[in-house]
C-alpha cells in the first residue's frame, strides 16, 4: 500500500523573504536564533525571529541562494508583518529585504520524490542543481521529505501529485512546527522544541529575545514542551487545551494542525509538561472533545 505521504505538493501557505546585500548574512545573524554567518554551502537553517521578550514572531527555513543573497521561507500569513518588523532593524546595514514570493516556486517533496535528487539529504542539508534548491526536512512517519525552491519558470521535479492538506499533515507528523498568525508571540522557541530540531544556536551572539531564550534553557524555567496529538474534533492553530485536573484555565495551545488521512485531526501541541503525565485533555473548551497525545518523533536534547 502506498504511503499517503508520497509525491509533490504545492505550498500556497508559504512565501519567501529575500535578503540581498553584502551585510545580508550578518544582519540575519543578528536578528534570528540561528547562526547565518557560518552558514556553509550544503547547509540550510531553521530559525526563529523573536520579540524582545523571547516570543516567536515568525519561523523560517533559511538558505543561501548566492553570495550575499539569502531566502527565508516563512508562513504567508506572517510574511508582511515580519518583513515590516525586520526592516525596522536594517538601519545602516547594507541589506535589502523584499517579498520575493512571486519570484520563486515552492514545492514539498515526500517519499521517492524527496530522495530522487539526493537520497542522503539530511534535515537542514541544502543541495543545489541547475538553479533549483532542495532542503532536507525532518521525516514524517518514516517518509523522507524535502523543500524545493527555484526561480519561477525553472523546470519542476516530476512525480505524483500530493495534496497540500496531506503535506501539511506530514508537517505536523514531523513534529517541527511552522509558526503562523494565530499563534504569533505565543511561544518561546523551546516551547516548540526548536532547540532540539536545530532551530536555536546557544553559542552565537545577541539577537532580540536572546536573554529570555537562554535563561529558559539554562535556568530550568521552561515548563512547556511540544508533542503530537490526535482528536476526532477539528483542530486549528491557536485553540486552547484544558486538563481534567484544572478545567478553569488552559494548559496549552495547538501550534499547528491538519486533517489526518485516516480520519480525525492531528496537531503539534505545546503543553505544560505536568499536563503530559496523565489525566484527560480537552481541546477548544473545558467541555470540548478529548485530545490523545502521540509519541514525539525525535528525542528532546537534554544537554545543549
Number of strands: 16
Biggest sheet overview = 6 strands, antiparallel, barrel
How far apart are the termini?
40 Å
- CATH topology term of the largest domain: Gyrase A, domain 2
Widest sheet: strand order?
A: 11-14-13-12-15-16
Sequence of secondary-structure elements: EEHEEEHEEHEEEHHEEEEEE
Hey, roughly how much beta strand do the residues contain? 25-35%
Structure overview:
The chain is an alpha+beta fold and 304 residues long. Strands 11-14-13-12-15-16 form a six-stranded antiparallel beta barrel. The chain has two domains: 7-161, Gyrase A, domain 2 (2-Layer Sandwich), CATH 3.30.1360.120; 181-294, Elongation Factor Tu (Ef-tu), domain 3, CATH 2.40.30.160. A hairpin with an 8-residue loop joins strand 12 and strand 13. The protein is globular. Helices cover 14% and strands 35% of the residues. It contains five helices and 16 strands. The mean pLDDT is 93.
Please tag this protein with its features.
304 residues; Gyrase A, domain 2; six-stranded antiparallel barrel; 16 strands; globular
